[in-house]
Structure formats: C-alpha cells, structure tokens
Design brief:
Radius of gyration: 23 Å
Helix content: 25-40%
Strand content: 15-25%
Largest sheet: 5 strands, antiparallel
CATH architecture of one domain: 2-Layer Sandwich
Number of helices: 14
Oligomer: single chain
Strand order of the largest sheet: 5-6-10-8-9
CATH topology of one domain: Alpha-Beta Plaits
Shape: globular
Number of strands: 18
C-alpha cells in the first residue's frame, strides 16, 4: 500500500476524537538522533495519555495508511526513531505515559508504563528495597518502552540478561489498533505463541509497547568494584573465568577498556579522575554483588592474587568506599561521551564468541590500519561478547575528512564480524541504519519468516516503515544507495 502523509486533515480527525491537547508542535529534539547523521521528518506529533488513546491514533493511521513512528527517549543509535524519507509520518511519543502502575515486592515484579524513564524505574525498585538491573549510559533519558523495543543490553547483561530476560509481560497496541492485554505476572505460561518475545526487539515495526511487567531482584547485600590492568584481551578472558570459578554468579559486571578510551577522557573530559597515573594498554572493570557475610574486597584481593599467579594482571585498584566506586564507574560511563566529543568515523556495536575476541581485535586493528590513519577505541561488555569497536580520526584531524572512507570502514568491520560468526548488532538494534547489513548477513530463511510476520501483523506497512525489515523491493535505507 502507498502511504499518505500525516497532514492537516489527519490532524482534524485526531482532534475530533481525542481533542487538540494530544497533538503538540514538533520541536528539533524529535527530528534528531544522537549522532546527528540523519534528520527525520514529522507530519504530526502526538503525546497520548493512555493505551486507549494510542489505540485510537494507530487505528486512524491504519484506516488511512499513515506511517506511525513510535518514539521513546530518542536515544537510539541506529536511526530507528527518525524517518528521513517517505511521506511525513505521525510520531507517537509515550512520554506522558510514564506511571509506575504497581509494585509487588514479594513477587519481585513491577508494572510500568512504556514512557517511564529507566532511571525512574530503577528508583522505584530501590524504594521497595529491590533492584531493576538494566543499566545503560542513557538511563537518565531513555524510556523503558524503547529499551524493550530494542532489547537493550548494558553493563549487567552478564548476570541478569538483556531487556527481554527482564520482562514477564506486555501491553501493546497492534498495527490495526487492537490492544493486546498481556501484562502477565506469571513466570510460567505455556499458552501458545510467545507474543511478548516477538514484540521485544521488533523496534516498533509490529506494534507499540505501552506498558510492561518487569522482573525485580534482591539488591546484593555487599558490592565490590575494582579496576585491574591486564596485559591482553586474552588475559582478561582468563581472569573472567577465574572470577566465575571464585564467586559464580556473583560477577555482575566485567568490562574491557582500552587505552584509547582513557586517552580520549584525558583529551576532552580531563575532570574525570582516572585510577592509574599512566593509562594501561588494557584494563577491566569488575563488579561483584555478594550476599551478606561475604567480603567483596577479600574476594577481589583473592582474585587479583590468583590472576597474578597466572600472569594475568599487572596492577589494580580496589574501591574501598562508595566514593572510590563511583570514581571507577565514572571512567567507564564517560567513555561514550568522550567518544561523542571526539567524533567517530564509524562506530560498531558488534558481538563475537568470547573466546574469539582476542583474534578479532588483532585482525580488526590490522584491517582498519590498512585502510588509513585512524585511532581505534575498542571497549565493552567482555562477559557477554559485546564490543563497541569504534574508529576515530587521527589526532588533529576532523572526521569530516574521512567521509569518503566511512562506508569502507564499516564494511570491513562487519565483514570480519561475519567471518567470526558474530553479530553486527549486539545491543543497539537494526533501525534504518543496519537494514542492508541484516539483508547481507542475515539467514535468508529467517529474513523470509520476518517478512511474513511483518506482512501478517502490519499488512499496510504503517508501523515504523523502513526500520529492521523492508519488503523485497522496498526503499533504500538512509545514507545508502540500493545496489542492483
């Protein structure tokens, strides 16, 4: 079906059913994505107050063939929340649907609306002495609906899993305007197809998530944090194995950090206090969450001692109080901001089998340096195989000088990831930016099934068109020219 723009006549229909208050002026924040590589277009911006209002908006759009773009916190990095091409869409922001509907501490369950900011969800869990462990750099502005729509990861995946693993049930509006009331608090429910896991990670292409039932967890009684210098990524992997042998599931976080990231901090965020006088080539940030009666400091000291016996560590800092813990975390949490201030040529959210990470890094660095003069900041969630392998201009040069090689850099990295049986989208999603990558590297049978699901649930193609999956002969993704 050919889509039509969200114009004044469509606005009149919306106002007739919902009143004028649901529509708002379009401000620049709704047209931009964080890396500012693409600018979206919006015909109308709607801020519904309830699932019933979302359903009316979507049903009107379905009847007329108006594209609908769900909007969370706008923090997505793959152009999933902005639509640069096609008829001007209806943007549906859930920011007014931000209530914590219910908390059941004895069940370790919380029901929240999709517009709730992640940090507010964390705070609500904390208020009943529980924790919601999803933790991201953008947690002060990203919203839980977007986290679920992209199956967000973060620093605690090693212990608690991705967003999908933290969700028991959903409420959602489907492309025809029907409401699925699936806010189950059950942990066992084998009654047919799993619509929850179908919608999680679908990036708004199969419907709009309006609320979710989330899993909560007891807060660890004792927490310990350390940063250890390691001679290589292989040593870091071996240390992770030692840590798991020592404390089992008590390892909450295990992050790999390269010298380049620390140098970027010194260059653009000098107020971030770093633990070592000279940035080490490689280091790891480790956090343990233990039960009462266990000493995290003693466990970390024992881990360091065992790692030293195996020549896996050269120096380290163990936080002795909350302030020191925050300082160590500040290093890791500010690396993405330093990256943004430096300005990357090409950023890559990839995953490969954990044991292959050292060889991937070795081959990747050689491949990129063969293409030109670059700086590489490789860091990320070593415990789950997710690396942010980002390529930057040489010092003193601007990324605009590399516009002609950006695609070659991205292609080289993604080709290498594919040879390692990895993924070119570990936690950020596909959006519009990686549609061609999914088509190039995805399993043909899987892509065929995805298209059939999309056509069955969204026969008019109104839900976030151009994101994740497109028809066989659909439009090119933004920033790319479709090959013949």
């Amino acid at each position: 079906m050919t889509l039509v723009p969200a114009d004044n006549s469509f606005a009149e229909l919306i106002c007739a059913q919902l009143g004028g208050d649901v529509l708002r002026p379009v401000t620049p924040q709704y047209l931009e994505e964080p890396r500012r590589r693409f600018t979206g277009q919006v015909g109308l911006l709607a801020l519904p107050r309830s699932v019933q209002e979302v359903a009316i908006l979507v049903r009107l759009a379905f009847d007329l063939g108006v594209a609908v773009i769900p909007y969370g916190g706008g923090t997505g990095l793959v152009c999933g929340q902005v639509s640069p091409d096609g008829p001007a869409p209806l943007l549906v922001s859930l920011e007014r649907m931000n209530e914590i509907r219910a908390i059941f501490p004895s069940e370790n369950v919380m029901v929240v609306e999709a517009g709730a900011v992640l940090s507010d969800v964390q705070a609500a869990a904390d208020s009943v002495d529980r924790m919601f462990p999803l933790s991201l750099a953008a947690q002060g502005s990203c919203r839980i609906g977007g986290n679920l729509a992209t199956n967000a990861g973060g620093v605690n995946v090693l212990r608690y899993g991705n967003a999908r693993d933290l969700c028991l049930g959903l409420e959602a509006v489907l492309p025809n305007g029907d409401v699925w009331n699936g806010l189950s608090r059950l942990r066992k429910d084998n009654t047919g197809y799993d619509l929850r896991n179908l919608l999680i990670g679908s990036e708004g292409t199969l419907g709009i998530i309006t609320a979710a039932t989330l899993k909560l967890f007891p807060k660890p009684a004792r927490v310990g944090t350390a940063m250890f210098q390691v001679p290589s990524p292989q040593a870091a992997i071996s240390m992770l194995s030692l840590a798991r042998d020592l404390v089992g599931d008590g390892v909450s976080t295990f992050e790999l950090i390269h010298r380049q990231g620390l140098q970027f901090l010194s260059e653009v965020l000098p107020n971030v206090r770093q633990p070592f006088e000279a940035p080490p080539e490689w280091s790891v940030l480790i956090e343990l969450g233990l039960s009462d009666g266990q000493s995290p400091s003693e466990m970390l000291e024992t881990l360091y001692s065992k790692a030293d016996e195996h020549e896996l560590v050269t120096d380290g800092v163990i936080a002795q109080n909350g302030t020191q813990r925050e300082q160590l975390w500040s290093v890791r949490e500010n690396i993405p901001e330093a990256n943004r201030l430096i300005g990357s040529v090409s950023s890559h959210d990839i995953s490969v089998p954990i044991s292959d990470i050292p060889e991937f890094i070795r081959q990747g660095n050689k491949t990129i340096m063969d293409l030109g003069d670059f700086r590489i900041n490789c860091f990320g969630h070593l415990g789950d195989g997710n690396l942010h392998y980002n390529v930057f201009p040489a010092k003193g040069r601007d990324r605009s000088e590399y516009d002609g090689v950006r695609e070659a850099v991205k292609f080289a990295v993604h080709e290498l990831v594919h040879t390692f049986s990895g993924s070119v989208s570990a936690e950020h999603g596909v959006g519009r930016l990686k549609v061609h990558d999914l088509e190039r590297y995805g399993d043909p049978t899987k892509l065929g099934v995805m298209r059939k699901i999309k056509e069955a649930l969204d026969p008019k193609g109104i839900m976030n068109p151009g994101a994740v999956i497109r028809p066989e002969h659909g439009p090119a993704a933004p920033g790319r020219i479709a090959s013949g």
